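Worked problem 6 (solution included).
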Amino acid sequence: MGQEQVLIQVKDLKKYFPVGGFGSKKAAKALDGITFDIYQGETLGLVGESGCGKTTMGRVILGLTPATEGEVWFDGQNITHYTEKQMRPLRSEMQIIFQDPYGCLDPRKTVFELIAAPLKVHGMKDREQLKKRVLELMEEVGLRADYIDRFPHEFSGGQRQRIGIARAIAINPRFIVCDEPVSALDVSVQAQVVNLIRKLQKEHGPTYLFISHDLRVVKHLCDRIVVMYLGVVVESGCKKDIYENPVHPYTRALLSAVPEVGNDAVEHRTILEGDIPSPIDPPSGCRFHTRCPQAQPVCSQQAPPQVDLGNGHMCCCHFCGGE
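Solution. The predicted structure is:
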């Protein structure tokens, strides 16, 4: 990346959810010491299996879910413990595109009302001005002007997601969390929405945190990638390093599972045994050792160090330095 200005800083972030009822000391460790930066104007991919903490990470950064420990910085401000009143001025700069295009839109409101809502919150009151801006946004995301008075149930999943995207970009935010924005869509529609997200970044320059389990989409869209497993980061780096030189066994397994076309598509596939352990009682040492095909005794005894492989490529594994 040519950009060096850091927009988002996540420092040793932890989020624990209490479980077991009143008086219980048990907690699900959704995030357990996460650190990374997001540079102005880039798209950072956050990948991992379902349940690894990706969505929680996005919500904590936006202040929608409070952190247990650690810090979140936005453009030089420590916003970790901001109240809703303190966060309100930042809402125009930080937005989210939700995963479910069916559940994130109020079925009782028209397209106009849905897209105009953030504009009203941030001071635009004149109806003609609102309508003009809503029509501009609809055109920008590929929705016809005559859809403006229709309700969400009259649209397909892809069209609903376009409404959600229009709402997210309405107030020109600097940072957008894309929380698996294409996972609920038909494959034929996914590419259209991904290309729209990419086009909007080129035209308006927002910074994206793109959360996904689909590594094909991430490869197409993202500049750098952070790989999560059970609440911790196991590998991070630029797209080229992650896809062409994956070092952590978990990253290799994820990449080997990406569907490919050709006779050699499954030749080098790594099949992980078992399910992700419970975040309530994560394994000792390296959290991945219970499923790792290369695990050694030290892996269950000691947490792996973070190894700098150069060029911003980081890996948390006892054997990062060699095969």
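Discussion: The longest helix spans residues 187-204.
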